[in-house]
Design a protein that fits this description.
5 copies of one chain form a homopentamer.
Chain A: E1 2-10, E2 14-15, E3 24-29, E4 32-38, E5 47-52, E6 67-72, E7 78-79
Parallel strand pairs in A: 4-6
Antiparallel strand pairs in A: 1-3, 1-5, 3-4, 5-6
Chain lengths: ~80, ~80, ~80, ~80, ~80
């Protein structure tokens, strides 16, 4: 997964039938932007875990989803183990 | 998925049998061009949602399609959630 | 898929058993070179459609093929829809 | 797989249900950072083997995991065969 | 597939159980290094065919292998078809 930051959302009234009901967030990660299906109720500004590729569609079976937000990082962010 | 813009189309009379009947759009996204199977009736100039990888072939089973246009972004484009 | 140009071929006498009988073309696309299994009888100089990833192996089941030439672009190349 | 170095870990209290119980390490490889599910008990500073893509989820079935630490390189690191 | 050159090997005593018995070669391709399971008995200096992604694991079922050496290029290397 990648660490990313939610910077917005997109809407597409005209879309593949199987994508109905999904929320699509725009996530910025390492300088690139990805549109990902939200699985955890993330919002703009949240630092999130972004899964990409085929595994991202496991929550949205039969839909061509190649990116999903699968976690929200804890506020303390990232720690180095002691 | 990626946000892209349809900039043209390609035709290949000689192609794998299972690709017959598909419309192939040229989509520009982050400086690169991808040829994607159209699933939503997109046209040149449309800003679209581009799915890539294995999931893109879910609409075109048994065909080696690794990119598909799966949505057309609403004209207002992209919003930042309030 | 990507648009590429066939620039040569490679031969590997010693290869995985399941790859026997395949023709491997060298395709140049966006500055990088990929070795792809030929599915349409393409030759050097042809502009082709290049499929990559798992979907590329659908024509060559049980073989670790991650790239395939799946179409030859028409000579008029690429058009912008009217 | 890629050779990487564990540089930390991340925690996400709010995450997809199927990701519960996983340890997520931050691995640096060729200048980029990836968050990977730990399969071998690796710690900060370890040089590891990093598997990415669909195959990474084979240890964590039904979870959208696209990266996993699958081995710890021996201290002598990497050898050139004699 | 990519054309690469074997530049070494890695050993990992501590690794996922299903990776036991595999030989892992370090292959250089287009400036990047990949660790790949050897399927053809390649050695340092050999120019090889490198398969990546899910298809690479077809020889090593149930193992998270995302890269495999699947062929050794003939010494004459690469030819341009006449």
């Amino acid at each position: 997964m990648k660490i990313g930051k939610v910077v917005g959302a997109v809407w597409a009234t005209r879309k593949a039938q199987c994508l109905q009901g999904q929320t699509f967030l725009v996530v910025e990660s390492e300088g690139a932007q990805v549109v990902a299906a939200d699985q955890v109720g993330a919002g703009v500004g949240d630092r999130v875990l972004l899964a990409t590729g085929t595994v991202a569609s496991r929550f949205c079976m039969e839909a061509p989803v190649d990116a999903a937000v699968v976690g929200i990082l804890d506020p303390e962010g990232r720690h180095v183990s002691p």
